[in-house]
Automatic annotation (TrEMBL):
Listed GO biological process terms: phosphatidylethanolamine biosynthetic process
Annotated Cytidyltransferase-like domain residues: 34-158, 225-316
EC number: 2.7.7.14
Organism listed in the record: Sinocyclocheilus rhinocerous
NCBIfam families with a match to the protein in the record: cyt_tran_rel
Pathway in which the depicted protein is active: Phospholipid metabolism; phosphatidylethanolamine biosynthesis; phosphatidylethanolamine from ethanolamine: step 2/3; Lipid metabolism
Protein name: ethanolamine-phosphate cytidylyltransferase
CC per GO annotation: cytoplasm
Region (Disordered): 1-24
Gene: LOC107756034
Keyword Ribosomal protein among record annotations: no
Similarity remark: Belongs to the cytidylyltransferase family.
Length: 392
Protein backbone atom coordinates (compact mmCIF):
# COMPACT_ATOMS: atom_id res chain seq x y z
CA UNK A 1 0.00 0.00 0.00
CA UNK A 2 1.06 3.63 -0.48
CA UNK A 3 1.16 5.94 2.52
CA UNK A 4 1.99 9.66 2.23
CA UNK A 5 3.77 9.01 -1.04
CA UNK A 6 5.80 6.21 0.50
CA UNK A 7 5.72 2.46 0.27
CA UNK A 8 4.81 0.72 3.52
CA UNK A 9 6.04 -2.81 4.17
CA UNK A 10 4.92 -5.26 6.80
CA UNK A 11 7.20 -6.12 9.72
CA UNK A 12 7.33 -9.82 8.83
CA UNK A 13 8.82 -9.13 5.38
CA UNK A 14 5.84 -10.43 3.46
CA UNK A 15 4.98 -9.42 -0.10
CA UNK A 16 7.36 -9.00 -3.04
CA UNK A 17 10.82 -10.57 -2.73
CA UNK A 18 13.70 -8.14 -2.36
CA UNK A 19 16.28 -7.91 -5.11
CA UNK A 20 18.68 -9.80 -2.83
CA UNK A 21 16.39 -12.86 -3.05
CA UNK A 22 16.53 -12.97 -6.84
CA UNK A 23 19.04 -15.11 -8.72
CA UNK A 24 22.13 -13.22 -9.99
CA UNK A 25 20.98 -13.70 -13.56
CA UNK A 26 17.67 -11.94 -12.95
CA UNK A 27 19.11 -9.14 -10.82
CA UNK A 28 19.80 -6.06 -12.96
CA UNK A 29 21.95 -4.16 -10.45
CA UNK A 30 22.74 -3.76 -6.78
CA UNK A 31 19.97 -1.98 -4.87
CA UNK A 32 21.44 0.39 -2.30
CA UNK A 33 19.26 1.38 0.66
CA UNK A 34 19.80 4.38 2.94
CA UNK A 35 18.77 4.60 6.62
CA UNK A 36 19.66 7.35 9.04
CA UNK A 37 19.06 8.26 12.64
CA UNK A 38 20.50 9.06 16.06
CA UNK A 39 20.80 5.37 17.03
CA UNK A 40 21.17 6.36 20.65
CA UNK A 41 20.83 3.48 23.13
CA UNK A 42 20.57 1.03 20.22
CA UNK A 43 17.94 -1.62 20.96
CA UNK A 44 16.22 -4.38 19.00
CA UNK A 45 13.75 -1.85 17.56
CA UNK A 46 16.61 -0.11 15.76
CA UNK A 47 18.05 -3.47 14.74
CA UNK A 48 14.71 -4.62 13.38
CA UNK A 49 14.45 -1.48 11.25
CA UNK A 50 17.92 -2.12 9.81
CA UNK A 51 17.08 -5.80 9.22
CA UNK A 52 14.00 -4.82 7.23
CA UNK A 53 15.90 -2.15 5.32
CA UNK A 54 18.56 -4.66 4.25
CA UNK A 55 15.81 -7.07 3.14
CA UNK A 56 14.51 -4.38 0.75
CA UNK A 57 17.79 -4.23 -1.15
CA UNK A 58 21.31 -5.61 -1.44
CA UNK A 59 23.53 -3.06 0.29
CA UNK A 60 22.64 -1.02 3.38
CA UNK A 61 24.20 2.38 4.07
CA UNK A 62 23.41 3.88 7.50
CA UNK A 63 23.89 7.55 8.31
CA UNK A 64 24.43 8.42 11.98
CA UNK A 65 23.95 11.97 13.28
CA UNK A 66 26.50 13.86 15.37
CA UNK A 67 26.02 14.73 19.03
CA UNK A 68 25.68 18.40 18.06
CA UNK A 69 22.85 17.73 15.59
CA UNK A 70 20.95 15.52 18.06
CA UNK A 71 21.30 18.08 20.87
CA UNK A 72 19.98 20.77 18.56
CA UNK A 73 16.88 18.91 17.36
CA UNK A 74 16.05 16.51 20.23
CA UNK A 75 18.17 17.00 23.32
CA UNK A 76 21.28 15.35 24.77
CA UNK A 77 22.13 11.83 23.53
CA UNK A 78 23.03 9.16 26.10
CA UNK A 79 25.97 7.86 24.05
CA UNK A 80 28.69 9.80 22.26
CA UNK A 81 28.84 9.83 18.48
CA UNK A 82 31.95 7.61 18.50
CA UNK A 83 30.08 5.03 20.59
CA UNK A 84 27.02 5.24 18.36
CA UNK A 85 29.07 4.84 15.17
CA UNK A 86 30.67 1.69 16.55
CA UNK A 87 27.32 0.21 17.66
CA UNK A 88 25.86 0.54 14.18
CA UNK A 89 29.00 -0.91 12.57
CA UNK A 90 28.54 -3.97 14.78
CA UNK A 91 24.95 -4.54 13.59
CA UNK A 92 25.08 -7.49 11.22
CA UNK A 93 22.78 -6.12 8.50
CA UNK A 94 24.81 -2.92 8.01
CA UNK A 95 27.28 -2.78 5.11
CA UNK A 96 28.55 0.80 5.48
CA UNK A 97 28.04 3.73 7.82
CA UNK A 98 28.24 7.46 7.15
CA UNK A 99 29.47 9.41 10.16
CA UNK A 100 27.92 12.83 10.78
CA UNK A 101 24.97 12.33 8.43
CA UNK A 102 22.71 15.41 8.09
CA UNK A 103 19.61 15.43 10.30
CA UNK A 104 17.34 16.26 7.35
CA UNK A 105 17.44 13.61 4.63
CA UNK A 106 17.70 15.09 1.12
CA UNK A 107 17.95 13.82 -2.45
CA UNK A 108 21.50 15.21 -2.48
CA UNK A 109 22.48 12.81 0.32
CA UNK A 110 20.87 9.80 -1.39
CA UNK A 111 22.62 10.63 -4.67
CA UNK A 112 25.97 11.27 -2.95
CA UNK A 113 25.98 7.71 -1.60
CA UNK A 114 24.34 6.17 -4.71
CA UNK A 115 21.28 5.05 -2.76
CA UNK A 116 18.05 4.23 -4.56
CA UNK A 117 15.79 5.19 -1.65
CA UNK A 118 15.78 5.71 2.08
CA UNK A 119 13.79 3.67 4.59
CA UNK A 120 12.39 4.66 7.97
CA UNK A 121 9.83 3.47 10.48
CA UNK A 122 6.22 4.66 10.43
CA UNK A 123 6.79 7.16 13.24
CA UNK A 124 7.46 10.83 12.53
CA UNK A 125 10.93 12.39 12.85
CA UNK A 126 10.82 16.15 13.28
CA UNK A 127 13.38 18.97 13.17
CA UNK A 128 13.66 21.53 15.93
CA UNK A 129 11.16 23.60 13.89
CA UNK A 130 8.64 20.75 13.83
CA UNK A 131 9.18 19.82 10.16
CA UNK A 132 9.26 16.25 8.79
CA UNK A 133 12.93 15.39 8.17
CA UNK A 134 11.93 13.11 5.26
CA UNK A 135 9.61 15.56 3.50
CA UNK A 136 11.77 16.03 0.37
CA UNK A 137 12.49 12.35 -0.30
CA UNK A 138 8.83 11.47 0.34
CA UNK A 139 7.66 14.03 -2.21
CA UNK A 140 10.12 12.72 -4.80
CA UNK A 141 9.11 9.05 -4.32
CA UNK A 142 12.48 7.96 -2.86
CA UNK A 143 11.14 6.90 0.54
CA UNK A 144 10.04 3.50 1.87
CA UNK A 145 8.46 2.77 5.21
CA UNK A 146 8.35 -0.14 7.63
CA UNK A 147 6.26 -0.71 10.72
CA UNK A 148 7.85 0.49 13.94
CA UNK A 149 8.75 -2.38 16.29
CA UNK A 150 6.18 -2.50 19.07
CA UNK A 151 7.17 -2.81 22.70
CA UNK A 152 10.34 -0.76 22.92
CA UNK A 153 11.55 2.81 22.69
CA UNK A 154 14.47 4.76 24.09
CA UNK A 155 11.88 6.69 26.12
CA UNK A 156 10.68 3.50 27.78
CA UNK A 157 14.20 2.22 28.50
CA UNK A 158 15.17 5.52 30.12
CA UNK A 159 12.00 5.34 32.19
CA UNK A 160 12.75 1.81 33.37
CA UNK A 161 16.16 2.93 34.58
CA UNK A 162 14.85 5.95 36.43
CA UNK A 163 12.01 4.13 38.20
CA UNK A 164 14.10 1.42 39.87
CA UNK A 165 11.18 -1.07 39.79
CA UNK A 166 11.31 -4.67 38.55
CA UNK A 167 7.94 -4.74 36.80
CA UNK A 168 9.45 -4.72 33.32
CA UNK A 169 10.75 -8.27 33.87
CA UNK A 170 8.23 -9.74 36.29
CA UNK A 171 4.53 -10.48 36.46
CA UNK A 172 4.07 -8.36 39.58
CA UNK A 173 1.68 -5.44 39.25
CA UNK A 174 3.53 -2.27 40.13
CA UNK A 175 1.68 1.02 40.33
CA UNK A 176 4.90 3.00 39.84
CA UNK A 177 5.67 1.26 36.55
CA UNK A 178 2.06 1.56 35.42
CA UNK A 179 2.26 5.27 36.18
CA UNK A 180 5.42 5.39 34.06
CA UNK A 181 3.73 3.69 31.12
CA UNK A 182 0.90 6.20 31.43
CA UNK A 183 2.89 9.38 32.07
CA UNK A 184 6.59 9.20 31.25
CA UNK A 185 7.37 11.95 28.76
CA UNK A 186 3.67 12.66 28.31
CA UNK A 187 2.99 16.05 26.82
CA UNK A 188 0.19 18.37 27.96
CA UNK A 189 -2.13 17.23 25.16
CA UNK A 190 -1.84 13.47 25.61
CA UNK A 191 0.18 10.61 24.22
CA UNK A 192 1.79 10.39 20.81
CA UNK A 193 1.39 6.86 19.35
CA UNK A 194 5.12 6.83 18.56
CA UNK A 195 6.45 7.76 22.01
CA UNK A 196 4.10 5.73 24.21
CA UNK A 197 5.11 2.52 25.94
CA UNK A 198 3.83 -0.92 25.01
CA UNK A 199 4.86 -4.36 26.20
CA UNK A 200 7.01 -6.53 23.95
CA UNK A 201 5.63 -9.91 22.94
CA UNK A 202 8.23 -12.35 21.63
CA UNK A 203 7.44 -14.72 18.76
CA UNK A 204 9.40 -17.61 17.28
CA UNK A 205 9.19 -15.86 13.90
CA UNK A 206 10.99 -12.79 15.25
CA UNK A 207 13.80 -14.91 16.70
CA UNK A 208 14.17 -16.72 13.36
CA UNK A 209 14.40 -13.38 11.54
CA UNK A 210 17.22 -12.23 13.81
CA UNK A 211 19.11 -15.54 14.04
CA UNK A 212 21.88 -16.37 11.58
CA UNK A 213 20.65 -19.95 11.20
CA UNK A 214 24.24 -21.11 10.63
CA UNK A 215 25.49 -24.30 12.25
CA UNK A 216 29.14 -24.61 13.29
CA UNK A 217 31.30 -25.95 10.48
CA UNK A 218 34.29 -28.32 10.61
CA UNK A 219 37.33 -26.32 11.66
CA UNK A 220 35.30 -23.72 13.60
CA UNK A 221 36.41 -22.85 17.12
CA UNK A 222 33.32 -22.88 19.32
CA UNK A 223 33.60 -20.14 21.91
CA UNK A 224 31.11 -19.77 24.76
CA UNK A 225 30.44 -16.62 26.80
CA UNK A 226 27.66 -16.02 29.31
CA UNK A 227 26.06 -13.11 31.09
CA UNK A 228 23.16 -10.67 31.24
CA UNK A 229 24.14 -8.52 28.24
CA UNK A 230 21.61 -6.00 29.51
CA UNK A 231 20.96 -2.76 27.58
CA UNK A 232 23.27 -4.17 24.90
CA UNK A 233 25.92 -1.47 24.52
CA UNK A 234 29.37 -0.64 23.19
CA UNK A 235 31.08 -2.33 26.16
CA UNK A 236 29.42 -5.61 25.12
CA UNK A 237 30.35 -5.03 21.47
CA UNK A 238 34.02 -4.46 22.27
CA UNK A 239 34.08 -7.60 24.43
CA UNK A 240 32.38 -9.75 21.77
CA UNK A 241 34.71 -8.40 19.09
CA UNK A 242 37.66 -9.39 21.31
CA UNK A 243 36.10 -12.85 21.76
CA UNK A 244 35.62 -13.14 18.00
CA UNK A 245 39.33 -12.45 17.44
CA UNK A 246 40.38 -15.40 19.62
CA UNK A 247 40.20 -17.81 16.69
CA UNK A 248 40.64 -17.83 12.93
CA UNK A 249 37.17 -19.33 12.41
CA UNK A 250 35.17 -18.42 15.53
CA UNK A 251 31.64 -19.61 16.25
CA UNK A 252 30.53 -17.50 19.22
CA UNK A 253 27.68 -18.75 21.41
CA UNK A 254 26.25 -16.34 23.99
CA UNK A 255 24.48 -17.79 27.02
CA UNK A 256 21.85 -15.37 28.34
CA UNK A 257 20.71 -15.76 31.95
CA UNK A 258 17.03 -15.57 32.85
CA UNK A 259 15.76 -12.32 34.41
CA UNK A 260 15.47 -13.77 37.91
CA UNK A 261 19.06 -15.04 37.75
CA UNK A 262 20.36 -11.66 36.62
CA UNK A 263 18.43 -9.96 39.40
CA UNK A 264 19.94 -12.39 41.92
CA UNK A 265 23.51 -11.37 41.19
CA UNK A 266 23.00 -7.80 39.94
CA UNK A 267 20.23 -6.62 42.28
CA UNK A 268 18.37 -3.27 42.02
CA UNK A 269 15.96 -3.31 39.07
CA UNK A 270 18.24 -5.31 36.78
CA UNK A 271 17.90 -6.48 34.14
CA UNK A 272 16.50 -3.36 32.47
CA UNK A 273 15.63 -5.47 29.41
CA UNK A 274 13.86 -8.78 29.84
CA UNK A 275 15.20 -12.06 28.46
CA UNK A 276 13.25 -11.79 25.18
CA UNK A 277 14.50 -8.27 24.51
CA UNK A 278 18.07 -9.19 25.38
CA UNK A 279 17.94 -12.19 23.03
CA UNK A 280 17.15 -10.05 19.98
CA UNK A 281 19.69 -7.38 20.96
CA UNK A 282 22.52 -9.93 21.14
CA UNK A 283 21.44 -11.80 17.98
CA UNK A 284 21.70 -8.53 16.03
CA UNK A 285 25.46 -8.34 16.72
CA UNK A 286 27.68 -9.46 13.84
CA UNK A 287 30.13 -11.18 16.22
CA UNK A 288 27.48 -13.59 17.57
CA UNK A 289 26.60 -16.91 15.91
CA UNK A 290 24.08 -18.35 18.38
CA UNK A 291 22.28 -17.55 21.64
CA UNK A 292 21.26 -19.90 24.46
CA UNK A 293 18.09 -18.42 25.97
CA UNK A 294 18.02 -18.94 29.73
CA UNK A 295 21.47 -20.50 29.98
CA UNK A 296 22.42 -22.14 33.30
CA UNK A 297 24.51 -19.89 35.52
CA UNK A 298 27.16 -22.54 36.10
CA UNK A 299 29.00 -23.45 32.88
CA UNK A 300 28.96 -27.18 33.55
CA UNK A 301 29.91 -30.42 31.85
CA UNK A 302 26.53 -30.92 30.13
CA UNK A 303 26.61 -27.52 28.44
CA UNK A 304 30.25 -27.80 27.36
CA UNK A 305 29.76 -31.30 25.93
CA UNK A 306 26.43 -30.51 24.26
CA UNK A 307 27.84 -27.55 22.30
CA UNK A 308 31.32 -29.10 21.93
CA UNK A 309 32.82 -25.91 23.39
CA UNK A 310 36.52 -25.31 22.68
CA UNK A 311 36.94 -22.11 24.68
CA UNK A 312 35.04 -20.25 27.44
CA UNK A 313 35.68 -16.52 27.85
CA UNK A 314 34.78 -13.90 30.43
CA UNK A 315 35.54 -10.18 30.59
CA UNK A 316 37.15 -8.18 33.38
CA UNK A 317 33.84 -7.76 35.24
CA UNK A 318 33.28 -9.50 38.56
CA UNK A 319 32.28 -13.18 38.53
CA UNK A 320 29.54 -13.73 41.11
CA UNK A 321 29.35 -17.14 42.86
CA UNK A 322 26.53 -19.57 42.08
CA UNK A 323 23.67 -19.95 44.56
CA UNK A 324 25.64 -22.63 46.43
CA UNK A 325 28.72 -20.42 46.63
CA UNK A 326 30.69 -22.30 43.96
CA UNK A 327 32.62 -20.87 41.01
CA UNK A 328 30.36 -20.97 37.88
CA UNK A 329 33.49 -21.45 35.73
CA UNK A 330 34.99 -24.32 37.73
CA UNK A 331 34.48 -26.91 34.95
CA UNK A 332 36.02 -24.94 32.04
CA UNK A 333 38.92 -23.98 34.35
CA UNK A 334 39.42 -27.65 35.18
CA UNK A 335 39.53 -28.46 31.44
CA UNK A 336 42.00 -25.65 30.77
CA UNK A 337 39.68 -23.89 28.31
CA UNK A 338 38.83 -20.77 30.35
CA UNK A 339 40.20 -17.37 29.34
CA UNK A 340 39.82 -13.88 30.86
CA UNK A 341 39.78 -11.20 28.16
CA UNK A 342 40.41 -7.47 28.42
CA UNK A 343 38.54 -5.53 25.74
CA UNK A 344 39.95 -2.21 27.05
CA UNK A 345 36.40 -0.92 27.46
CA UNK A 346 35.18 -0.56 31.04
CA UNK A 347 31.67 0.65 30.21
CA UNK A 348 28.96 -1.24 32.10
CA UNK A 349 25.19 -1.06 32.41
CA UNK A 350 25.76 0.64 35.78
CA UNK A 351 27.71 3.41 34.05
CA UNK A 352 24.86 3.94 31.58
CA UNK A 353 22.40 4.15 34.47
CA UNK A 354 24.61 6.82 36.02
CA UNK A 355 24.61 8.85 32.78
CA UNK A 356 20.82 8.73 32.73
CA UNK A 357 20.36 9.65 36.39
CA UNK A 358 22.81 12.57 36.15
CA UNK A 359 20.86 13.99 33.21
CA UNK A 360 17.36 12.98 34.35
CA UNK A 361 15.78 16.41 34.06
CA UNK A 362 17.22 16.95 30.57
CA UNK A 363 15.93 13.58 29.37
CA UNK A 364 12.47 14.16 30.83
CA UNK A 365 12.34 17.60 29.20
CA UNK A 366 13.51 16.06 25.90
CA UNK A 367 10.77 13.43 25.99
CA UNK A 368 8.05 15.97 26.77
CA UNK A 369 9.26 18.26 23.99
CA UNK A 370 9.31 15.37 21.49
CA UNK A 371 5.82 14.30 22.57
CA UNK A 372 4.43 17.84 22.18
CA UNK A 373 5.84 18.16 18.64
CA UNK A 374 4.38 14.79 17.60
CA UNK A 375 0.98 15.66 19.04
CA UNK A 376 1.00 18.95 17.10
CA UNK A 377 1.59 17.02 13.86
CA UNK A 378 -1.24 14.60 14.69
CA UNK A 379 -3.62 17.49 15.30
CA UNK A 380 -2.58 19.12 12.01
CA UNK A 381 -3.12 15.86 10.06
CA UNK A 382 -6.56 15.43 11.61
CA UNK A 383 -7.40 19.02 10.73
CA UNK A 384 -6.34 18.44 7.11
CA UNK A 385 -8.63 15.41 6.89
CA UNK A 386 -11.50 17.26 8.52
CA UNK A 387 -11.51 14.97 11.57
CA UNK A 388 -12.57 16.00 15.03
CA UNK A 389 -9.23 17.08 16.61
CA UNK A 390 -10.43 15.87 20.03
CA UNK A 391 -11.43 12.37 18.86
CA UNK A 392 -9.24 9.31 19.45
Amino acid sequence: MIRNGSHAVEDEDQGEPSSSSLSPGKRKRVIRVWCDGCYDMVHYGHSNQLRQAKAMGDYLVVGVHTDEEIAKHKGPPVFTQAERYKMIRATKWVDEIVEGAPYVTTLETLDKYNCDFCMHGDDITLTVDGKDTYDEVKRMGRYRECKRTQGVSTTDLVGRMLLLTKSHHSNVDDTAYQLHTDNFGKGPKGHSPWTGVSQFLQTSQKIIQFASGKEPQPGDTIIYVAGAFDLFHIGHVDFLETVHKQAEKPYVIVGLHFDQEVNRYKGKNYPIMNIHERTLSVLACRYVSEVVIGAPYAVGKDLLDHFKVDLVCHGKTEVFPDTDGTDPYAEPKKRGIFRILDSSNNLTTDHIMQRIIENRLQFEARNQKKEAKEMAVIEALKDERGEDPHAG
